[in-house]
Every structure is written in C-alpha cells, then in structure tokens.
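Structure ticket #2291
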Amino acid sequence: MPPADDAQYLLQMIDEIGYGVVEWGQIHAWASMTGTPLTPWEANAIRNINLAYLSALNEYEGKDVPPPWHDGKIDRAKVEDSVRKALRGRSRGNR
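Resolution: structure written out below.
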C-alpha cells in the first residue's frame, strides 16, 4: 500500500475489519465490539477504501503490473535498460 500518513489509522482499522465486500453493519459491529468510536467520515472512508481495493483487485487480477503508486525511488539501471529495449525495438520496426 502507498504511504497514508495521517490516514494510516484507517488502514489499520481496515486490516482488522477485513478487505472485501464490507457492509455498513460489519463496520458498525466492528466499531461496537472494539469500542472504537467512528465519525461518519471515517466509516465512509473505510467503506470507500474497501470498494476501491475490490475494484483494483478485479481490474488487475492475473496481470503482472506494478503497484499504482510510486515510492519515490528510481532504479536508473532498470529505466535505462527499459528505454534501450524500447528504442531498439522501435529502430528494428522502422527498417
């Protein structure tokens, strides 16, 4: 997961509630059982994050793709190799 900074606690709550189809009743039951008061905004965020997770899971299932965030680190050798291969393939196609 990408860094969440101030919202990291929401991701921890979702880890406890679980990923997948999460109904309002499940969120309410978790909050009640753990004694965790949730604002409407937090409950909504938990549900929306779960829905976004499911959407991405369905969209990328079985595909070999990088995560949809960037950690700020660039592997220059990998980028150079990728560009070199792309240019090499392009020059072969123009002959």
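Closing remark: The CA atoms of residues 28 and 34 lie 10 Å apart.
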